[in-house]
Amino acid sequence: MEVVQIQRNLVDYTKSLFMEGFLDGQFLQLQQLQDESNPDFVAEVVSLFFDDSQKLLNELTIALDQPIVDFKKVDAHVHQLKGSSSSIGAQKVKNACIAFRNFCEVQNIEGCLTCLQQVKLEYYLAKNKFETLFRLEQQIVASGGSIPMIEMGF
Amino acid sequence: MACNCIEPQGPPDDLLMKYQYISDFFIALAYFSIPLELIYFVKKSAVFPYRWVLVQFGAFIVLCGATHLINLWTFTPHTRTVASVMTTAKVLTALVSCVTALMLVHIIPDLLSVKTRELFLKNKAAELDREMGLIRTQEETGRHVRMLTHEIRSTLDRHTILRTTLVELGRTLSLEECALWMPTRTGLELQLSYTLRQQNPVVYTVPIHHPVINQVFSTNHAINISPNCPVARLRPAGKYLPGEVVAVRVPLLHLSNFHINDWPELSTKRYALMVLMLPSDSARQWHIHELELVEAVADQVAVALSHAAILEESMRARNLLMEQNVALDLARREAETAIHARNDFLAVMNHEMRTPMHAIIALSSLLQETELTPEQRLMVETILKSSNLLATLINDVLDLSRLEDGSLQLDLGTFNLYAVFKEVLKLIKPIASVKKLHVSLSLAPDLPEYAIGDEKRLMQTILNVVGNAVKFSKEGSIAITAFVAKPETLRDSRAPEFLPVPSDNHFYLRVQVKDSGCGVSPQDIPNLFTKFAQNQSTATRNSGGSGLGLAICKRFVSLMEGHIWIESEGLGKGCTAIFIVKLGIPERMNEYKLPCMLKMPINHGHTAFPGLKVLVMDENGVSRTVTKELLMHLGCDVTTVGSSDECLRSVSHKHKVVFMDICVPGTDSHRITDRIHEKFAKCNERPLIVALTGNTDKLTKENCMRIGMDGLILKPVSLDKMRSVLSDLLEHRVLFEGI
Predict the structure, then answer these.
(1) Distance from CA of B420 to the nearest CA of A (A)
(2) Dihedral sign, CA of B374, B377, B381, B382?
(3) In chain B, what residues touch A88 (CB-CB under 8 Å)?
(4) Which ipTM value was assigned to this complex?
(5) For the modification Phosphohistidine, which residues carry it (chain A) (predicted)?
(6) Model's pTM, two decimal places?
């Protein structure tokens, strides 16, 4: 059946995201928290993440564009971004943020700019992946199926 | 005029008369002018002492003159008045001249003595002049010595000192040649080291045991020597006689000489010889003061040379120390860099290794939930367990560096001891069966089923030891025995520092793993537990492994207050690995938590803490939402705040726990903790304050403990972790998650 096919696609896709390192265990935790009382929890959190991150990335671009860069502010923003991305399990974004913070600590502007590019890249990739994921889920729901829960014992 | 002359008066001769007349006139003139001159000159000079003599003399002369003048009138017949005047004049003249004559007898000796005194004074003046000259010369000599000394002492360079000495001496004494002979290393010859005029140094040596040289060395005075002496033959033979030559000894003092009160004998003392030659075409001779000058200079030179030597020594020592210091500093910095690099490498590798580990664990878990055959399920479970072990190992590689500074702590918990052994057996059985090794496990009947300790690390140790046994055995069997060690058997002669103290709530677990493998030669046994040291025998070379296993085991065993060692009778005779660890005896048998490694029943929607009021403070919106959902899932009544001020406003005694996300090292968290403590100081229902952080370092944990927090949880928090953490927290009221 089509729903089964889409469900399998979803599972495959999710697996691939794990394999490639886009997601980590935290995302599974989020999915565990989603249930009948809160069916859109994951989607809510992820869209919250997107809004937050977009703002943070804009702030970061502006801050690094200044003639005299305020590294403390930059560091604070990156820290926020790191926190958000690790909360939802966006692993690559989180890793890029960690590298970014290192450059902030030594106040290396070129490094920071490179890292910002990297973070942006990872963020857009992650956003893309999440959107695909949600589209698949919506397709399943639209076709009347239920989203397969990934259960595991950690 | 009556004339009493015997001759008859002849007729008056006119010519004669005329001449007499003129002469008398001139005489009178002269006689009158002399006193005038005298008076004039005496008036001019104020010093003449005998004025009245002059008056007398003047009178005498005037009268004589007058007499002669009056005589002029007597040539012609003259009157009686003239005659009487003449007579008066003559009488007066006679009187005065007699008086004058008498006076002169007294005066002339006086005048003569004046002359003598004058001569005497002149001599005295000449003598004083001479003496002055001498004193001046001496003073100049003294000045020269001072100047020379100053010149010599103003430099601390040996060569400059000697050269300056020669130059200055040459200048002061106007020498033709000045030379310094230094003793050679052997001490048997004197070598011409420095000369004043000769610019081309000709290496020229003279044996030291020459009578003249000995003579010079025997006294500290400067001694005249013959110009033909070998040390004095410095100038080519000239037309003139060579000038006088003087030689003086210059003691070469060594540092040690200063410590001796009495001067050592001549034979042990080294001297240099200074030879000074006066110009050959002058008739100069060596004067005493010049010799004294030379002696004084020689002494000064000796002192200056020894100062220079001391300084050279200390400069050399200082340079050496500086070089060593630089080298040590460099080595220290290199070592620090190496340590940093290693730590960084470990940290990065650790992180890099965790990432795929997560993927493996996650996917294996995913796989577990799918449809599997029993064998497949077993395989997947083994994969999961192995990867968990591997994750632990990765932690431990990072820990090893922390083990070294002792910051690792055991994760104590109650666990099933039997299950641990069974687990090890299960894990090792596949490999052992491939190698056709027989593995047997025997647990003593008095071994308690449950124990308190670090289960993961104990399992790791046993696994490592058993793994080694399997690795190094090609055939035969492996026997694992475990029992409670009795106090008598605990004392091992091999480990005198291991003094186990048995007590009521602890017991010592002794595990022996005997294999029939290739064994270990006795001299290699001490190296087995050394990090990365591999036994290079041919049998083991291709068996792989990092050499880290036993080192880590040893550290874990030490942390568990135990001891590990290996016995072997030699190569080919197998070996037995034995370790003893201290484990706690749990008080209540029924209170245990199932270890996370075994499959845990998943309680979805299990509300563990119904209605527990908690407050979550997190500035990050995303993580705040996640944490809230997590706690809500566990049934808590969650209030969320986004800032510390809101937190302080919202916290009330109804809240049982306050979760604070601390990011940047927090004066903020300190402040909030303090305020909460203050606010609830009166009532004893203070909410527990727990920090949520992603920082895994000890400092953060210590800070939290220090500022009064009740607990610390590491992010990321899984649902199950949060559940277990909350239950622990509420029961014990404190929880600092082991890092």
Answers:
(1) 19
(2) positive
(3) 622, 626
(4) 0.70
(5) 79
(6) 0.35
